[in-house]
Every structure is written in C-alpha cells, then in structure tokens.
Predict the 3D structure of the following.
Amino acid sequence: MSNIMEKLELTAQSMYCKKIEELTPSELHLSLGKAVMGEIADNWAASKAKHNSERRAYYFSAEFLMGRMMYNNLYCLGILDDVKKMLKKKGVDINVFEDIDDAALGNGGLGRLAACYLDSAATMEVPLDGYGIRYKYGLFKQLIKDGYQVEVADDWQRFDDPWCLRREDEAVTVSFKGQTVKAVPYDMAVIGCKTTNINTLRLWQAEAINEFDFQAFNNTEYNRAVQEKNDAENITKVLYPNDNKYEGKVLRLKQQYFFCSASLQDIMRRYKAKHGNDFSFFAKENAIQLNDTHPVCSIPELVRLLMNEGMNFDEAFEIARKTCAYTNHTVLGEALEKWHADLMMQVIPEIYHIICLIANKLQEELTAKGISEDMKAKMRIVDANTVHMARLATYAGTYVNGVAKLHTEILKDDVLKEWYQVYPERFQNKTNGITQRRWLGLCNPELAALITEKVGSDNWLIDLSLLSKLNDCIDAKTITKFNTIKKKKKVQLAEYIKKMDGVEINPDSIYDIQVKRLHEYKRQLLNAFSIMTIYFRIKEGKLPNWTPTTFIFGAKAAPGYARAKAIIKYINEIADLVNNDPDTKDKLKVVFISNYNVSYAEKIVVAADLSEQTSTAGLEASGTGNMKFMLNGALTLGTYDGANIEIAECAGEENEYIFGARVEDIERLKKEGYDPKKLYEANPEIKKVVDTLIDGTFDDDGAQGEGSFAELHNALINGTSWQEADHYFHIYDLPLYVETKIRANKDYANRKEFGKKCLINIANAGKFSSDRAIVEYAKDIWHTSYRKV
Ligand code: 9GP
C-alpha cells in the first residue's frame, strides 16, 4: 500500500486535473476510493479465482446497510493512519469524509447484520459473496420539524460511488409478465482484515433494454418515449422503508424477484462455464443463504432455471433444496411475508406455478410420513389464496435458523412448531454478531488501544475471544483508564450532537441511550414513560440523590407508521418540558437526535453508559445494537429478550440491569387475561404518567384529545377493534423498569464499581463477534472453508 498517495495523485490529475489539496471533499473521496480500488485489484482477482475453485456460499439479501465505506476500508487494509498522516501533509483533514453519505441500503438490524457478515466473511476467509439490490435511493433521511419526523430522499450516489464497479458485460435480463428488464451488476469489494482475501458484494440495478422510443418521440409522445426506461428503473429506485413489517406491493415483489433471478442466472453462468450442462455438482459447489423471506422466490426461480436446462421438476427441486438455507429474523406476524396468490400470478406467473408444484410435493411428502390432516393444513405453503414464504423456505431448504437462542426456541415451539415436529434436523441457532473492526477498532481507537495493551496484541481484531484476557486485569488503574476514555467519548458525542442537532448536553451526566428503529414492540414509549415518572418524582423531591442523566433517543419510523411517528413527537414534547423546567433541567435532559444512521451510531455506542434494550420479551429476535454497546462497555438496561439474555449470561446478570416480564410471564398474562386498565386505575403514578398523553400536558398539534397521542392512550388502555389493550405490555413492565433505572442511577455514583462492570462486559463480549457467527454458518450450514485463527 506504499504507493497509495502516488495513485491518488495520478487519479486526481486524470479525473479532475487537480492536485490533491485542490480537490473538493467529494472529489477527494472519489479519487482516493478509485486509488484504493486500483491498489486492491490483484488481491480481489486472486480471491475471486480462489472462490471459484472451491465450494462457496452466497448471501442473498434485499438489504445491505454498509454505512460509510472509506474509513472502514482504509482501516481493514491497515493504512488508515498512514493515509491520515499523508493527507495532513497536504493540508487535508481526513475528517472531510464525514460529509460523505452512508450507503444506507437497509432499514436496520437485518441489513446491518448482512453488512457485518460480509465484513466477517472477508476477514475469516469464508468464500461468501453477497447479492442484493442497488437502490438509487437508500433509507430516507430524517429531519425533525416541530417534533415531528419528516422524510427526505437519500440520494446517496449523487457524487458517484468509488467502491462499486459497473459490470455491464455481465448484465442479464429478468422477465416479469409483460415486462423484460436488464439487470446490471455493480461489484463492491469487501476487504478483509489481516488477510489478502477480498470478497464481493454484487448489487443489481434495473435498466431498460430500450432506453428511448424514437417512434413515440417523433409522434410527440414524450412520456411514452421514455416509459420503458422509467418502468424499468422504478424497480430499483427506492428501498422500502419498513422494518419488521411486510408490504404486499407489486413493486416490492418485483424487486425481490428481480435480484433473485439476476443472482441465480449469474451463479448458473459461472457454473456452466465450469461444468457445462451437467448440474450434478451444483449443490455440492454452491450454498445460498436466504436472509429472511425477501429472497425466497430464489427457490422456485432456481427450479425454473434448472428446468429450462432440461431437468424435470423433481430433479430441479432436489438441487434447489440442497442449495438453499433460510434465516428467520422475526416472529412478528406482520413481518412474515405472505403474498397474495393473485398478485404473484399477475407479476410472476411461472414462479407461482412452480410454488404450487412445491406446495403439492410437500403435501404428498407429509401424507407419506403419516402426518395428520390437521397438521398438514397448518403447513400448507399455498393456503386460502396466500403464499406463505416462511413455510416455503422451511420446506425447500436444508436448514432454517433463528438469530439468538431464545428466538430459535420460539421458532421451534411456536412460529414454526409443526415444521420442527416434522423436520427437527433442519433447525439450528446462529446467534447474531457484529464486526469488531467497525464497532470497536474504528469507532473507538482509544478503547482499542487500551485493549491491545492489556491483551498483548491487536489480534483481537481477528479473534475477539481474546477479550477474555481482560478479565484478569480489571484493577483500579485499568478502571480509571476506562472511565477516562469513556468520558472522552462522551465529550466527543456532546460536540457532535451540538453540531448535528444543535442541542447541548452535559458530558458529566449519565448517558442513557436508546437508538434503533422506532417500533411499538421495542417500546421507546416505555422509556418515555419512565422518564416522565422520574420527572414527576424529582419535582416532588422524591429523588434527592438523582445523578443527572441525559436520555438520548435516535430512531426512524416507517413513513406510514402513524403510532411510531406519534411516539417520536411525544418524546420531543417530553424533551421540551424537562429540558426547560427549572426544577429538572440540570437533572434530566432528553434529546431526540435526528437521522440516526450507521455513522451516527459509531459515535453513540462508544459514549453510552446505559444501553436501553426494552423490547417486550419474545419479540426482539436478537438485536445487534445491544452487542455494539456491550463491546464498548455500556451496561444493558433491558428485558429478558433476544440476545440480551446471552449478553447477561456471558457478563453475569449482576453486571447488567435486566428487568420485567419474561416470555413465560407474558404467556401467563395472556392466558389469565391481561388487564392494563386495572393496573392503570389502581396506580396513581402510572395513571398520571400515561394520562400526559391526553390531559393537555403535551401538544400534538392542538388535537385536544383527538389526535395521535389520544390514539396511543386509547390503544394502551382500551385497545382497538384489531388489537387488545396494551398489546406490548408497557403498563405491566413500567414499575419494575423505573425501579431498575433508579438502581442503575444510584450505582453509577460509585464510579469504580460501575466502571468495573463496564470492563467485565467488554471482557465477555467475545462471543458477539460476527466472526464467530460467520464461522458457525460456514461450518454448520454452508460447509465451506474458513480461516483458522
Ligand atoms: O428484529 C430483528 C432483530 O432483532 C435482529 O437482530 C435483526 C438481525 O437478525 O433482524 C431484525 N429483523 C428484521 O429486521 C426483519 O425481520
């Protein structure tokens, strides 16, 4: 990498006729990116050739939330510091890249997990390449106006993108009923750390086969002249902004089929170049991981493509089944995809036909196994004009896995119960993970240096289990060093929040942070209620020893999710109240940061003291934010849910703040008949807090009891025609949550003891590396090679 600056100089000259120091930030970004791509070209080609010579795996995902690439790529190449110094010599601050947009081609957990897995596979030398969609507009940018969320389109490619190479020569066509489009691949290099291995993320962009209709143009039909172009480009125009909610729209189905078909054609092309028309090696050489149900039409599409090669249905199905495996990421009914059969027939009739063949095959197989009619009915892939994608994936794949221990148990006992009874050998657990390169090395160099000093080398970068060595050196001096680093990160975050959101916060206060997508099941509203409870208690003089606390929220709501948007407004109203009340303004501060994204997260997770993970037990499949916070020494204030349970297992429950109903409690409450209204009426403190939604304390635009806050109140206390009252058990969990929060606040005053807990968390975070997770996938599901560290 020694001549990277020379390459940069040449690139700057040839692209812009400028010297390095004359480039604008986006020009520098493009030039340096191109220079880096030139530098890694040989290693990339060698890795591709190696992958092609062995059994390999593909990660099919509609989302890859990659974040900002520049710093991460330089970091993984081990040249970040050198480049920083060399740029400085030219008078350029490397922080200019802070102005470059994130590649936000994902909504949240699932998309970020896909990005961490690519990163880990590259580092762990797993021959895994990603396939996805090159959305023109990624996840919307969020502005907060008058406390409300406002969405703005994310035009992330407007200054071009140096990390993707367009591969026009490998374009394929994809056909829908009445429409055929071109799928053009863009390849992104995924750079491993302490290895020469480089993997590939191939993203498909939809384009028209005929861009312009001159006939129509000559007839002055200008719209029709570009109609084919627009119709094609619309397919990959925008990422659907829903997290944990399925949207049964034609365009969404087109997106899914588009990238599945293009990716499979690509794999087939490569395969045929090796083996011609002999498909007997296909499943031996290729494994495809389906990231949630979004890519599940890959199964019938692979069957279709193989049948086009002359195979019969049964042979083709056997190959597809041996090739594919499915990861489930949610138990929420509204997120499990169920396509209307009519819609499928309208868009991809051939695929629908093959799904029906698969569905019939399943019923025959179940009959042969002697399964009862009742159970067979519950397992139907096509039922009442609806295609159940999770069922299709479970049947037509080798494995199905959940993403945390509890979640996998829930799949087995509940969501996919019948399937587990018939095919128990297919079920696996693969607890999620995060990459320590981005989420510690890059975002917290100060803590990384301390860890390197204590562990004796920086090998934790490729083997996070080495963190356990820290357990032996948690002494007073190390705790002080840790606390000093945390303080520095808190100061940095305060400066950043001031710059981005114009709010001043006190770095000496506790940072209690909840950042994630806004969803009722994640219960940001519970956090808001707890703050209001504490606010009233402080005003009544009931919390004399309260340590000042800054509550930081960051969350995007799906644009069509009215309740989530109401909760954002409610939090902002609380901020207005407590931040300006003379009785509380020095003790409580509430900040809703705008446009929470990967880059903001990098600054937030490092500065947190408390990590809020408050989902209703059983509903957060895993969570990965919880792991990022833990790795940076924040203590989890959370429920017995998802990976929180494993975090507490690893670090010891005494080193976290775990509270509230467990899955068993929720089940019991449901059976007994949970009555939130009774609890609310019996507890004046709860009533006072919940009633701030309707008693005029806050303003949701002068709606006076008729607006979105009143709707929230009604949903909690009375329920609606479609949902029972307090569906997510806020009122049940509120009292214990408040007490746990107050206990954490008290504990924080003992800085040594609290710091010790933080270090114990870091020392026991090794399990949560995505390197561990990806090697488990490689060993247990894909049966590919991997690096032995
Ligand atoms: O909600 C889950 C989250 O708990 C999990 O950590 C993440 C990655 O496995 O997936 C999320 N699910 C989705 O985004 C949609 O199913």
About this structure: The pocket of 9GP is lined by residues 108-110, 113, 243-244, 292, 329-330, 335, 403, 432, 620-624, 642 (CB under 6 Å). The radius of gyration is 27 Å. The chain has a mean pLDDT of 97.
